[in-house]
Amino acid sequence: MSAQQSQGIQTLLEAEKAAAKIVQEARQYRVQKLKDARTEAAKEIEEYKKAREGEFKKFEASHAGSTSEAETAIDKETEVKLKVITESYNKGSDEVVQKLLARVTQVKPELHRNLRKAQS
What we know:
Belongs to the V-ATPase G subunit family. By secondary structure, the protein is an all-alpha fold. It has helices at 2-105, 113-119.
């Protein structure tokens, strides 16, 4: 009976080794599948990025012209406004200086209203 038991034990050990080998192969297969999935996902992400970047560059190119046109229009408008302001300044500066001088040199000596009330 001991030969039969030792052969049974030997069979169990061999079955256990075979099962461990199968489990190890399954783990390796799972790890490989995960690596493949990550690689494929990275490729898809990169393709999506390139597509979106291309769309953005097209959008940017189509709107860049309108931006420079807007800048040109704003610059022209600013120049016109500056000319108007400069002309207005040149026309009225002498008159303003004269009015200021007239007010500054026109002195009426009189008591402050609070002082007048106190004296009354």
